[in-house]
Every structure is written in C-alpha cells, then in structure tokens.
Please model this.
Amino acid sequence: MINEKAYALGSKSSVIREIFEYGKKRKSEIGEENVFDFSIGNPSVPCPKIVTESLSELINNSDPVSLHGYTSAPGDINVRKAIANYVNGTFGVNEKAENIFLTAGAAASLTVSLNAIVNEGDEVIVFAPFFPEYRVFAEKAGAALRVVKCSPPLFQPDLCELEKAVNEKTKAIIINSPNNPTGAVMSADTVEKISALLRRKEKELGSQIFIISDEPYRELIYSDKEVPYITKYYDDSIVCYSFSKSLSLPGERIGYILVSDKCKNAREVYFAICGAARSLGFVCAPALFQYIIPRCLGKTSDISVYKENRDILYNALTSFGYEVVYPDGAFYLFVKALEDDDEAFAKKARKHELLIVPSKDFGFGGYVRISYCVSTDTVKRSLDSFKKLYDEYGETQNG
Ligand code: PLP
Model:
C-alpha cells in the first residue's frame, strides 16, 4: 500500500499547472502567438546581467571541485553573512548569519519552516486568497489550515476575523506581501496591528505564535509603497525569502529562511529548521547559486516591464467594465469573474484563447488570476479577447 495522501497530491496537478499544460498543447496546435497564456508566475524578463557575470566569473575562476561540491547544510557561511549584512543595512534590523538557512526557494523555505514548528493537531492561519501550496505544506507538516478572508475591494486582512480565528492550537500565521494572487501590499499599520493582536494572544493563551512572512515578491513593487520588514514589528517571526521572482531564477531554486534573533527561542527554532530540512532530504541549497548571492542582493531584473503590463491591463480591463483589484506589486491581477462560478468563467475565457486561473483554489471564489509576467506584446494583443469575453456576458444578460 502506497501513501494515499502523496498519491492524491501527485496524481492530480494544481489547477495552475493544469492550465499551463493545456497552454503548451494549445500553442502547438494553433501557434504560440495565438494563445494568451496568463496561467503561471514564471518571470518573463531575463535575470539581470550581474547574475550571468557572476556565474561566468565563478565558473572561469574557481576550483570546479569546490564550486560544485556540497556546502555546509545551512549554506555557505560567507553567503549567509552577506545576507545578514544586507538585511540589517537595508531594513534597520539586527539579524544574524547564524540564524539564516539557505534553501531551494520559497517553497522549500515554507515547508521546512512549517515542519520545524508544527506539531500534529496545530493550526496555521492563512489570509484568503492565498498561494494554494500553503495547504499542501501545512497539512503535510501535521497542521490544519484555518482560513481568514481578506475584505474586497482592497484585499487587506480582516483583523476582526483574525481575532476570532486565533486559538490555543494556533502555531503560525502566514503573511504574503506583495500578494499572490491579488498584488495587494500590506501597510506598516496593518502589520503593526497584526503583531499587536498576536502579542496579546500569545500572553492570553500562554503560547508561542509565529508569523511566517513569505516574500518571493518583496522587490516587485510599482509605487513608493514600502513592504514592512516583519522582524522589526514582531519577535516570533520567520522570513521565507526567494530569489525566484526578483532575479528571474525560478528554475534554479534558491532562497533562504531567516529566524529573527528576537524570537523567544531563536536558537531552538533554528535547530528545528536544520532538523526539518535534514529529515526532508534538503542536503544544501544549490551551491553555484548560493555563491552568486553576495553580488546580487537587492538587485532585480527589469521590473519596469511588469509595471507597464500592469498599467495596460488594469486600465483596459477596467475601461471594458471588469472589476479589478488594483495591484501595487507582484505580477498578478485579481479580477472578478463575470459569473459566480469562476471555473466556468475561466473555461469560457479559453474560447478566446485566454488562459486565466480560477480563484477557487486560492481559497476565495468568484475571481480569476491573470499572471502578467508575459511579453508586453502578448498583453496588448490579448486586450481584444478580454473585450470580446466581456461583451459575450453583456449579450447573455441583455438577451
Ligand atoms: N510563495 C508564493 C506566494 C508564490 O507565489 C510562490 C511561487 O510562485 C512561492 C511561494 C514559491 O516560490 P519558489 O519558486 O521560490 O519556491
């Protein structure tokens, strides 16, 4: 008998992956340029030059045996020191290299962190809409997911609902700003309020409640909004960072976990992270990509392309009549479906070769997600299809 839960997860891919695969098939049938594939969050702009320069320098000037060898399990200490220096200098905090663990991207950071802190029967709170893999990671770690809805139209966390959701089983809440799938950014005021609420609950309940800040989109911001650094606001915090989106390196699998030094039992939590990574078989993060990090901290690929795509799509869709959440960051647009059933709406969009993701799996029905990390040309050429889709619904309602 094999593991049924693993079978269930592996035999059915995520809705996002399913649409992505459909897109590949459709492109081979009617030509790449005729399919408007907004399904997946794969960065469409190349990594910055500093990445390729660092890679060639490393390859040309290093001893290949050590370059491609194992690093220590938590990652090369000089890389971890560089990250700590960068974080401290940029956000005015006082974090330590010894509390940083390099990982294979945010997915690994999240699953390792959850496995490190959760005991069977605990609960993890997420704000809906949320990245669907949170459920997979939390449940595998033994926790139940408790969902607190954000309130439209701004999609900020509902703090009254959060207050009701926190209980003696709560082990962590996951925050994600800029957010996938809404693009919403949490203000410092909201982060402060969440922190104050959890501090009070920790006292009342006599428990420790972590904030896990999932940050693959931290640098993808298109306004002067700041993304508050969680360890400044809340002691029992863990940052799950990834270079996948900022440096356009999602296939290379590189990121890190940072346990705040102010965390009540920081060293214990850190060792639990080391233990969770060990038991999950993460030996060390990809070495070559560890070594480029010191030169690439704070750098991004050319995100002005995403801003342009956002502006074109947001302006066009709202002018057609769609209800769209205004995104300050990430590269997603969250759009109200034109019927209650978001899956049926996304299916109808396919008739116009628009591949968009229904929101049900994000824990918040009635919307679709458009990933605008595609070429600006694709965005422009897709507008006619979005208009036709909108008009089709108008005709149904009128006729
Ligand atoms: N968290 C969120 C909110 C994401 O959108 C993603 C990827 O799209 C991840 C985590 C996983 O990122 P990574 O590629 O670094 O594993």
The first strand starts at residue 36 and ends at 37. Residues 4-48+301-398 form a domain with the Aspartate Aminotransferase, domain 1 fold (CATH 3.90.1150.10). The radius of gyration is 21 Å. The chain has 15 helices and 13 strands.
